[in-house]
Specification:
The protein is mainly α. The protein contains 11 helices and no strands.
Length: 215
């Protein structure tokens, strides 16, 4: 499988399916979240003008961004109340754990190219994110894409500790944090494009080869 911009290995979907199946067995809610974030990352990458290969990189980085939560105790992930300082530290380890889980596949360029986005999806453009305190354009573009759609999904879906928030509240929060937490241009693109995404099909190849296979 290839495009004029890069090569996606034939075994990419089989490897992804095995990893996502493991996540689903441990944490079905995070699995579902990762599937949505993968799909939305692809759409935001597309609407931000990235080519088809970069869109696929965004999709796979989004699928795997939280796979490290396999290594976070369910007592923390599903805790209905606020996390204490120690629990926060454990939770904040998940981007590095995600990177470590995917790293064995990085002998292929496709997977090596998604590692920075997986590690960096909680970095903020103002430099106060984690784990590396990167700022502005130091934060990989794909990581900045994931952060926008990851935050949207986290706020709009019902979690153990709160109900999902109304769309207008989520949009307002993305705007409020534009330029501090989020890349302003990506927020603008998301807000303009998101309302049309519901009418668009999901990535058929990913659905057939990965999502349906892990169902």
């Amino acid at each position: 499988m290839s495009s004029s911009w890069g090569d996606i290995p034939a075994w990419a979907y089989e490897s992804a399916q095995a990893l996502m199946q493991s996540l689903k067995a441990v944490d079905p809610a995070t699995y579902a979240h990762c599937c949505r974030v993968g799909e939305m990352s692809r759409k935001l990458a597309r609407d931000a003008g990235l080519n088809e290969y970069q869109q696929k990189l965004a999709e796979f980085a989004g699928l795997f961004h939280d796979i490290g939560k396999i290594g976070v105790p369910q007592s923390i992930i599903a805790k209905p109340g606020k996390l204490d300082d120690q629990e926060h530290l454990v939770m904040q380890s998940h981007p590095v754990l995600s990177e470590e889980i995917i790293k064995p596949l990085s002998r292929h360029t496709f997977f090596s190219e998604i590692l920075p986005a997986i590690r960096g999806h909680h970095e903020r453009v103002d430099g106060t994110g984690y784990p590396d305190k990167k700022r502005g354009d130091e934060v990989p573009l794909l990581a900045r894409i994931i952060l926008v759609v990851d935050t949207y999904d986290a706020m709009s879906e019902t979690r153990a500790y709160r109900k999902g928030l109304p769309l207008e509240v989520v949009y307002a929060e993305l705007k409020r944090c534009s330029g501090t937490q989020f890349d302003p241009q990506l927020v603008q693109t998301f807000l303009q494009a998101h309302k049309h995404w519901g009418q668009q099909e999901s990535d058929r190849e990913t659905f057939e080869k990965l999502i349906r296979g892990a169902a």
